[in-house]
Write a structure and sequence with these properties.
The chain is built from ten helices and 14 strands. With 472 residues, it is of the alpha+beta class. It has a 14-stranded antiparallel beta barrel.
Length: 472
């Protein structure tokens, strides 16, 4: 009511003197508070034409355009106010918001970080900086920003939404109601890597296909091409559904019979962000070895994630996998069903780019042939940390114990056969340096030490790779 009365009184002043720049300016401000953004834009714009030296008018005109969702002219006026230094932190905040609305997330993040210096703006600046990081595909850094909002304003709607995100195990998009309609529903990527492998093995990097025949015990180099994209099929108040396709192709320098091609189709469904989230991921993989059909598999993974605090979250999951091989050296005795259940904990280590995770998984592989039926226990730990301003580093360790259920035909010794037992250690270090928001350089090392009581299944493997990744 007071803003309406103010608008009426300043309107009387404008009627008395239509060239009164201050009266026009203040009537515009009052109209803006009443939600009459078109009228506010007209009045403040006219006041600037009459008196270009009004100290805050450029910023307020930009904010009026922003509230009217006219982001292109909002950017022009807020940039002018920012350059003039008028209420610099407020100008930085609204410029960051405007760029976020325009989809320029990296630039938006820069201005929002500057606005965090103002105590009044800090919680919401952290929040939108977190959302900008989410859309750049940097969920670990985003959680740190969102955790600051949740810490400073735990009871606000923004703080509650930030808390759900900051602790969530899978952070991908802004909460329902805050996502922008113009946000593109699709994303694309392409990557090129050159690798040295000390012991080429017939297996995708994320799939266990360990047999005596699949271990070459030879070193080779290769080029690896990967590409893919995703599309949001549904994004509503109840949750979201996303479809994804990935292509993988390796080309060896000498061991061309080990060239592997992979096709993956994946559909993810997840509930809306909250302290308790749930979802289902379904995947179909098809692989060709030396450009001939090799094997295919289907996986279904329901999961539940609980955010205990802004800095901690737990995820529980179950995976059902069915696999079928088409050709030798892997015969039908490797076909089967695998059931796996796991628990994973995520911890924010106090800064935007420091995340610790650790988990446990039990799985049982029931294959057609007795030689490959096993129960397995697996533990792993990983940490993401920055290295100065040079790169983001991910370090991981995994230990896996496989207990095979039947005497192994490959373990025959004077008519006596015994059960196979494997224990595997995996070490991984990955570095990523962003040249631009779209282009990143990558460097990685993966080491595998597989020990077995059957000598033919023992092997070591060391992979060093470097390449470039582009996202759109």
């Amino acid at each position: 009511a007071q803003w309406a009365q103010a608008a009426r009184l300043f309107g009387e002043a404008v009627q008395a003197d239509p060239r009164d720049a201050l009266a026009l300016y203040y009537r515009g401000l009052a109209q803006g508070h009443e939600g009459l953004f078109a009228a506010a834009i007209q009045d403040i714009d006219q006041s600037l034409k009459l008196n270009p030296t009004l100290p805050h008018a450029a910023l307020d005109l930009g904010i009026a355009y922003f509230n009217a969702r006219q982001y292109a002219p909002a950017r022009i006026w807020i940039e002018r106010a920012y350059e003039q230094g008028t209420e610099r932190f407020t100008a930085a905040y609204f410029l960051g918001l405007t760029l976020y609305r325009l989809g320029e997330d990296a630039a938006a993040q820069t201005y929002l970080k500057e606005a965090e210096a103002d105590p009044d703006l800090r919680p919401s600046a952290h929040y939108y900086a977190g959302l900008a990081l989410l859309r750049q595909g940097k969920p670990e850094a985003a959680r740190g920003e969102l955790a600051e909002t949740a810490r400073e304003q735990p009871q606000s709607e923004m703080g509650k939404a930030a808390q759900a995100y900051a602790g969530g195990a899978a952070v991908r998009q802004p909460p329902a109601g805050l996502a922008q309609k113009h946000r593109k529903p699709w994303s694309l990527y392409a990557a090129l890597d050159f690798q040295y492998d000390s012991n080429v093995v017939i297996a995708p990097s994320d799939s266990e296909v360990k047999t005596e025949e699949g271990i070459s015990r030879q070193a080779d180099g290769r080029g690896v091409i990967a590409a893919g994209g995703s599309y949001v099929l549904l994004d509503g108040d109840a949750g979201s559904v996303r479809a994804q396709y990935d292509l993988y192709q390796s080309v060896h320098f000498r061991l061309t019979q080990f060239d592997l091609q992979g096709h993956r189709v994946r559909v993810d469904a997840a509930s809306k962000p909250a302290a308790l989230r749930y979802g289902l991921a379904c995947t179909y993989d098809f692989y060709a070895l030396d450009y001939q059909s090799f094997f295919h598999e289907g996986l279904a993974t329901p999961w539940v994630a609980l955010a205990e605090s802004p800095a901690a979250a737990t995820q529980v999951y179950y995976t059902l996998r069915g696999r079928e091989f088409f050709r030798k050296p892997f015969s039908s005795e490797r076909d089967g069903i695998d059931n796996a259940a796991g628990l994973r904990q995520y911890l924010n280590l106090g800064s935007a780019e420091r995340i610790l995770s650790f988990g446990y998984q039990f799985d049982s592989d029931d294959t057609t042939g007795n030689d490959f039926k096993y129960d397995a226990h697996q533990v792993d730990v990983g940490v993401t940390v920055p290295i100065l301003d040079l790169a983001s580093a991910q370090l991981g360790y995994l230990f896996r114990l496989e207990d095979y259920q039947s005497p192994n035909s490959r373990a025959g010794l004077q008519g006596f056969q015994f059960r196979r037992h494997d224990n595997e250690h995996q070490f991984a270090v990955a570095l990523s340096h962003d040249l631009t928001p779209e282009v990143a350089l990558t460097l990685a090392y993966v080491g595998v030490l597989n020990n077995s009581n059957i000598r033919s299944f023992e092997y070591d493997r060391h992979i060093v790779s470097g390449g470039v990744r582009v996202t759109f």
